[in-house]
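I am writing to request your help with a piece of structural work I have in hand. Here, with my thanks, is the record as I have it:
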Amino acid sequence: MKPLTFAVLRLLSDGEFHSGEEMAQQLHVSRASIWQGMRHLDEAGVDQFRVPGRGYRLREPLHWIDKDKIHAVLGDKAGLFDLEVADCLASTNSRLLEKAVQGAPQGSCVIAEMQTAGRGRRGREWCAR
């Protein structure tokens, strides 16, 4: 999923209606770019309402991974982890291996909202929604 599509999804995640024009102004893009982003959401299987005169709304509000909340829950142990949060990665496992080769510190963690080529154990495909 493209960065603009994630930006549109973040705007819509509150569960309220947003017009294409309003979103275009907030994201400093054209209305056509918003339309493309909505099309990518359709392709990704994201349920949404489209109401003429009101705009777009997700069927259900979304809750995003929040690095600060994770650190708050970890409390005094938060400093033990080097946490990277990404919108979309091919594989969190592959990203973590890349970081290890670059000398990532112990306690490195990678979390993604979406994986496009995740891997499970024994080479099995990993899919989470």
Q: What stands out?
A: The two ends are 14 Å apart (CA to CA). The chain has a mean pLDDT of 89.
